[in-house]
Amino acid sequence: MSIFTPTNQIRLTNVAVVRMKKGGKRFEIACYKNKVMSWRTGAEKDLDEVLQTHSVFMNVSKGQTAKKDDLVKAFGTEDQTEICKQILAKGELQVSDKERQSQLETMFRDIATTVADKCVNPDTKRPYPVSLIERAMKDIHYSVKPNKSAKQQALEVIGQTISRPHEAAAGAAGQGGQASEGEAEAAPAGGGERGLRRGAGNG
């Protein structure tokens, strides 16, 4: 079926577009929403679950595919699947402000949940509430990085909150949390214990 048929054009309107400028021209690929970041963080391995089509476009919304000569000149190959991989890895994801904010909020919660899974309160030997982790993240003004996985960023959060145990505890307590100085000196559920305890000792 031709990509220019009305049916395909309708199917390709509800997509996440990844764009790359190369060789003086703009190239785009059509992806499924919410799959681009999964691919970039390694959560999704199946390219067919990410790409709506293995075609490279000049303009996805208009259904204008790229010419082979332009692809070869810009990428050194006419293999569109390989070019799609390059654009997927290095291109700019086009999303609306509302979608971007929603994605950041979802990742913020995922990071907090991961931190809660990895750390326990050394006093009670129980995991910290996710809400307490979220407050601590806000206290240190943690900025979510869309191109990093939640797990990678969770480790960053652990390092930053443990390096400032007194402030993290005071901030959480001031917002109605039950954090004490001991709570801020989190002990991980597994791995990295030495680093966390050393960081807490510096507080």
What is the radius of gyration computed over CA atoms, rounded to a whole number of angstroms?
A: 22 Å
What is the makeup of the main sheet?
3 strands, antiparallel
Give me the oligomer status.
single chain
Q: Please write the CATH class name of the largest domain.
A: Mainly Alpha
What is the typical, i.e. mean, pLDDT?
Answer: 77
Overall geometric form:
elongated
Q: Compute the number of helices.
A: 10
Which CATH architecture of the largest domain would you pick? Answer: Orthogonal Bundle
Could you tell me how far the N terminus lies from the C terminus, measured between alpha carbons in angstroms?
Answer: 64 Å
Integer tally of domains: 2
Report the helical percentage. Answer: 40-55%
Structural class: alpha+beta
Low-confidence stretches: 5-11, 164-203
Fourth CATH level, the homologous superfamily of the largest domain? SBDS protein C-terminal domain, subdomain 1
Order of helices and strands: HEEHEEHHEHEHHHHEH
- What is the CATH topology classification name of the largest domain? Arc Repressor Mutant, subunit A
User: β content, as a range?
Assistant: 5-15%
Q: How do the strands line up in the largest sheet?
A: 2-1-5
By DSSP, the count of extended strands is 7
